[in-house]
Amino acid sequence: MSIGDTEDPAIESLGDTGLLLSVASATAIRNANLGLDAIGLRARTFSILELVVRTGGVNQRSLADKLRLNPSQIVALVDTLVADGLVERRLDDEDRRARLVCPTEEGERQWATARELADRALEHTLRALSPPERAYLHQLLSVVVNASEPD
Fold first, then answer.
1. Could you give the CA distance from residue 13 to residue 45 in angstroms, rounded to a whole number?
2. Which end of the chain is more exposed for a tag (fewer CB within 10 A), N or C?
3. pTM of structure
4. Residue ranges of the domains in the chain?
């Protein structure tokens, strides 16, 4: 199958790029949720855990900005990760009014397993694309995301 070919005429008839992007995102999230369910994570909690592990700690406002989520959603998702022992809130040495969300040792271990499961889910989601098409998709999505950084 090459770019532009679909097996589902109903999806092809959608015609709207925004709608196709929304359906593609929903598909990726569904597949990630199915894979991550084995360890009790969901795509959104995994996204937070990934950012926290990769940065070593980040404040909740930055998490909301990076993930384009409402700060109240971030609070609930971080609360879930705290309850699961995967992250903890610590005082920010640079701004004592703020708290950083930091990974625990268990969170770092769980992240490694989750990363493998998420990679398998993404492989499943993108299986119709060749490696060069995947690289190009990644490049295009990076441009879109970086161009829409919050002000």
1. 33
2. C
3. 0.82
4. 16-147
